[in-house]
Structures are given as structure tokens and as C-alpha cells.
Amino acid sequence: MRTALVIGTGLIGTSAALALAGRGVQVHLSDHDPDRARMAAARGAGTEAEPEGRCDLVVVAVPPAHIAATLADAIGAGRGRAYLDVASVKGGPRRELEALGCDLSGYLGTHPMAGRERSGPMAASADLFEGRPWVLTPTRGTDTEVLNIALELVSHCRAVPVVMDADAHDRAVALVSHTPQLVSSMVAARLAEADETAVRLCGQGIRDVTRIAASDPRMWLEILAANPGPVADVLAAVAADLEGTVRALRALDAADGAADEAAAGLEDVLRRGNTGRARVPGKHGSAPATYETVTVLIGDQPGELARIFADAGRAGVNIEDVRIEHATGRQSGLIQLMVEPKAADGLADTLRERGWSLRQ
């Protein structure tokens, strides 16, 4: 791949352009908003100049509702050897392209499973996709050259290729991406009118659950509108669990003869939650490991994180994961260091010797 045209210079398009430009590909940028393309170019993602001829790759990174029309225009104009889109839904755009009578041998639907709460070219990063799954949805009619170019793009972005059927992909992201966004937003919406006293009690749990609720509503409305059926199916199952949970809680509140049955129903939901959470891939995509947590009081000041990691290194301990729980209104917090169980005692002893205050 020597040349690429990226149509749509938001977070995903600009991030892909930055990765390609960093690998020596001549990238041309196009956007319906010239200012966005100009910002992406200023960040080193490519040039706003029109390509002189056909590009090796055309990446369409526009909202789902505009994917088919944008691709149809590009294919009709012969702007590239291979055409990819990076939308978060795959079945709908392909069916729209088929209805438009497009030759789809040069097209491949893809979806990089990466993103962040902020959007736009200024939020883009060349390493956004590193280590993340990048779904490819080829069909029997997909040209081999197109698949190879797609794999080259994934390689340049240091992502991990995953081949799936388009409709299976849409059902999967409804479960692992689109429904969590809605549920997070629903929980966060309860805080909008909550008493200030209640809000001040927010801890790490509510922060974890509502983190993605900070995402752009307009962007998510476009995504959900492109995949409504599969998302509604997952939400219907969640709603059934919610309805049963509400009934169980009412029964417990009434303290009548149904209390034992209600408690059993609640326990079933919680245990199924344990089972599902245990299936979420852990470090490096492997099965979740069981770590021991060493919790340390840490000051909110420059150098503290570097110091505690350096002390862990002196102890010969690898930090497998980390979480910081901030103390509201205080210049301190708790850092939770997740390590292999056999390393926990040694790390705790070393940190105490180095003057750190540990917590249970």
C-alpha cells in the first residue's frame, strides 16, 4: 500500500490516517467539514490535496447512516483499488450497497473495536487501535487483493484481525458495546436530578458503571439507529432480568412469605453476573486471571505514581493491573495494585519498608 484516501476525519478516520502516515503511506484526507480535514492534516495525518489518480485504499469513516451513499460515490468514481468502511455496524451498509447495484468485489466492511469518550480529529491517536480487535467481514465475492490490503491496514494500525459474518458482528456488538452504552447512560441519568448529598457519596463503583455515559449522544444516536433490532433484543433480555429483580426486591421489602424465593432470584442474577464477568477476556486477551490486590494510600502530587511503580520494580514484582480510587475533597487516594498471588506479600513488605501506608 502506497496511497490511501480517508473520507471522514473524526476520531477513527484520523487515527487510521495517522497510523498509515506513520508507516510511510501517502494519505489524502477528505471531509464534508473542511475545518476537520484541515485539523487532521495539521496533526500530520495526511494532506488535504486531492489524489492525482486512483488510491490503493479508500477508507470511509463517516457516520453509519452515510456509509452506503459515500461508498457508492467513491466506487462509482473509481477512487481506489480497495474500499473499506469502519462503521460500527456491518449488515445494513452492505445490504444498502447491494440495493444500489454497486460492484462489491472491491469492498470489505470492517470495524475497529476501539474508541474513547472524546471525538473529532483532535482526540485521534496513531496508537488508538494497538492490540485491539479489528473485525473484517469478507464474503465469497470479496476480492483476495482487497482482503490483503485490509490486513495490511490492520497491521499498520497494530490491531488484531478478527474475521466474522456481518450480521453475527452486529449481534455481537449489540451485546458487548451498544447495550452497555445505553445501560451506562440510564444509570447516569438517575444522577442528573439526584440530591447533592447523594452525589457526594459517589465512589469507584458508580464511576466504573457510568464512565462511557460521557460519550457524544449524537454519535451514539447514529450508531443505535443503524443497529436497532439486535440492541432491542439484548435490552429485552436485560428488561426481563430487571422486571424479575424489581419483583424480588418488592417481596423482600414486604417481608412476606415470598422473601426466601425473592432472595433466591436475586442471588441467581448476581451469580449469573459472576459467570458472565468471568468470560470477559483478561490481560493480553487470555482467560481472566485471579490476582491479589495490594492497596496503598497515595498522595495526589507529581511523581507519586512513578515512585510506587519504581518501588514495585525494586521488589521484582510485575504490576498486572492498576486502579486508582480518588478520595472526594482530599489530596489523596487509594491505588490498587493487582499482582500474582505469590508476589503480594513480598510487594506489601517492600512498600512498607519504603514508607508507604497500606490499607486492607
From TrEMBL:
EC number: 1.3.1.12
GO molecular function: NAD+ binding; prephenate dehydrogenase (NAD+) activity; prephenate dehydrogenase (NADP+) activity
Highest taxon above the source species: Bacteria
Keywords of this entry: Amino-acid biosynthesis, Aromatic amino acid biosynthesis, NAD, Oxidoreductase, Tyrosine biosynthesis
Signal peptide stretch: none
Any Pfam family matching the protein: PDH_N
Domain Prephenate/arogenate dehydrogenase: 2-288
Biological pathway: Amino-acid biosynthesis; L-tyrosine biosynthesis; (4-hydroxyphenyl)pyruvate from prephenate (NAD(+) route): step 1/1
Similarity-based family: Belongs to the prephenate/arogenate dehydrogenase family.
Biological-process GO terms, alphabetical: tyrosine biosynthetic process
Protein name in UniProt: Prephenate dehydrogenase
Provenance organism: Streptomyces mobaraensis
Domain annotation ACT: ranges: 293-360
Chemical reaction(s) catalysed: prephenate + NAD(+) = 3-(4-hydroxyphenyl)pyruvate + CO2 + NADH
